[in-house]
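Data availability excerpt. The first of two example chains:
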Amino acid sequence: MKKTHKLLILLALVCTLLVCGMMSASAETSGIFTYTITDGEATITGIDADFNGYTSIPETVSKNVDYPVTAVADSAFSKCKYLAGIHIPASIKSIGTDAFKGCAYLYQITVDSNNQYYSSDSDGVLFNKDKTTLIKYPVGKSQSSYSIPYGVTYIGPGAFYGSSYYNGLTSITFPQSVTTIGYGAFEECTGITGITIPNNVTTIGSYAFKGCTNLKSVTLGNSVANIYSEAFSGCESLTSINIPDSVSDISWKVFKDCKKLTSIKLSENVTKIRGNAFEGC
């Protein structure tokens, strides 16, 4: 009987802890932001979709006690079309995937100089701390051209997603320091008409230039070894492409729906052409 009583008490305690845990992870509100608390730290999960203007992420939120804000969740601001600018405090350690996707009028991201993980430049572009990774180019910027700073080696996933669609970005200049172009980095940049990939680039990620409908000219550097699936799919103005000797594998749907593509130069080093690589050409 005593064992049964102890078991019931133990079960009740476990249930209480589980409920408390669920409560600590439930969404709370601080001004225009929503957040969750896990292990004593707060993650920003969203923002008022109707907010219009410039704002700062708080360094702390209060729920009986103060909790440091250390993270921004995946897609946290994606529903806030009219977010114009945002300041990232020193407390932020991580920013999730697609955090700013869909922020059509975002023109500036600034970062506290004491932040140990992120930085920004005078153009309001978001980088990692040492500026080797370009994380987000604000799609609401009005300039038609942008030169990626020397020292950047990695252009992150979705870094320029939709930039041309919203603000008319037509020209991108890559420095020789770039080695990797990430997943969807320039997807839907419909205003870009030509790109020259520098010789140090070895990898072009999936969907990197997908849907760049006015892209007519692509020059690939001589070190590109990996061009992943659908990297140039939907580039319907592209008329010709020269694949460098460094490429041996043409990935799935890499040039799918490049409707005007009439000239393709392949080297003898190409040993695999995967399914639907040129579908719709």
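And the second chain:
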Amino acid sequence: MLSRFKSTVVTSLVTLVLGVAIGFGFFGTTPAVHSQGTTGDPEAQLFRTIYARVNPSVVSINVRIPASAAAPAQGNSFGQPSQTQYAAGSGFVYDTAGHIVTNAHVVGDFVEGRGRRRQRGQTQDASRELTVTLPDGSTVPARVLASDAERDVAALSIDAHDLPTIQLGDSRAIQPGEWVFAVGHPWGVRGAASAGIVVGTGAELPEMPFNEREWLVISLKVRPGNSGGPLVDVRGRLLGINTLMTGPQIGAAVPVHTIAAFLKDKLGTPVADVGLPSS
């Protein structure tokens, strides 16, 4: 009787192990979901569609500071600058008139209306070059039309027209848990993309700097060079500007209704209804 019981238990265990092994793809058997690859994956196809729609409007913002223009504090022990310095970020085409939107901290303290800036210790005529690299690889001079450090938004102008733009979305309608998609040039890698979900929206979010401002907090890593690039929804509509990283795999973006209010205040630019404050 005991022998028969042991035999039954052993048989059951063998059957269970074989079932688990087959279910996880051992012995040459692969679940159907893996056999499709990414080609048939609806989620992957959605991301590719969004990327194809958004990437043609994403640009690279380039700042070149010649050695002769750098502040002495940035140079060697003799107070002389040692080498030409570079900085870069992302931006996007806002309209067909050649207006580019990015973060204010990407362009730094460039004088509004000019493609040059001054820092403490440099001479009046020291040139600092501000350029924009378009998706086709061409690079054109840019000038700052307006910049707001508090909202961390800047508007640039380039001599290029009829460029593809990004449709505006509604950053006040987006809800936690919804998919979002970021495109930019982190670490100089052109056209890099990442996806995540919305963690929270609004002002006074925990652990957020400048918590008097409204933010979109997202579960994706915003790397150096991503700043100024677009954050879009699953339809490729602009939700905000990727701005900073607040923790592991957590980033924050300036909402598009803040961008629209900035453009209206600074440039008088008419904008579509994207949830502008009523005041």
